[in-house]
């Protein structure tokens, strides 16, 4: 695939540290950079493909991570995922900026790639090697983008309440797509959030109205993995993002539709293959034995 095509899709490191850190970037395998305006020529002299980047014109993305909060109803800790997928779907034409603390740059790169978002990522120096490894992995699996697959069409009114609903839908892996008008291709269309509605209760009502049987995608075995599904009549691509700190093992996946073949590409776990693959009753199921930060499953009919 032409490198120029890849360059449009892959996230880019934002580096505002001195030019004398060039050796650290070379050691990590970084070649492309965003730098503050006025510094690009100095970095180009060092052999880097450097372009100026204005942080003020970008949308601030949250650092992807998981927090554990007390569940009032059950007095147990439940994960709260800080993720940006719903923001990317809401503003697909915008450029995003991550100020990624140590340990989060690789996940930020995978997240932006999964949603096809243009993003600059300010990584901590200790994350350079893993970040570069993720970029290499993304380059190897990159392909022309497929249409978004979703159960729910959302007519976004731009309100904070709608933002919270989108966030909650994403956190519960209820696949939606922001659209300009309601469409028959979706099982449900959300035109507005009722006045004074509780966003959580509204999102859960959407889940009940949709029913689990109609969901295009369901996962079992983790509450820290978020998914994105794209595809057409012949194929589908499933992105799985792990916001937890550890390896996820034994993740079971159910995709609506009959796919004869499935191939797994898992960052940090090369050579891992899908297990217990079955196609029956109009659905495809399989197990991902282990995954780290990010995995992609390519399905073909």
Number of contiguous helices: 8
For the report, how would you describe the main beta sheet?
Answer: 6 strands, parallel
**Termini Cα gap:** 24 Å
How many distinct beta strands? 19
The stretches of 5 or more residues where confidence is low (pLDDT under 50) are 1-8, 72-76
Lateral arrangement of strands in the main beta sheet: 3-2-1-8-7-4
Global structural class: alpha/beta
In helices, the fraction of residues equals: 10-25%
Verbal overview:
The chain is α/β, with parallel strands linked by helices and 301 residues long. The chain has three domains: 3-141, no CATH class; 152-214; 217-300, Immunoglobulin-like. It is built from eight helices and 19 strands. It has helices at residues 3-9, 22-28, 40-45, 85-90, 105-114, 128-141, 160-171, 199-210, and strands spanning 12-14, 32-35, 49-52, 59-61, 65-71, 76-82, 95-99, 118-122, 152-154, 176-178, 188-190, 217-220, 225-231, 235-242, 248-256, 261-266, 275-280, 283-291, 294-300. A six-stranded parallel β-sheet has the order 3-2-1-8-7-4. It has a four-stranded antiparallel β-sheet with strand order 12-15-18-17, with no helix packed on it. Strands 13-14-19-16 form a four-stranded antiparallel β-sheet, covered by helices on one side. Strand 13 and strand 14 (235-242) form a beta hairpin. The longest helix is centred in the middle third of the chain and has 14 residues, at 128-141. The protein is globular. Residues 1-8 and 72-76 have low confidence and may be disordered.
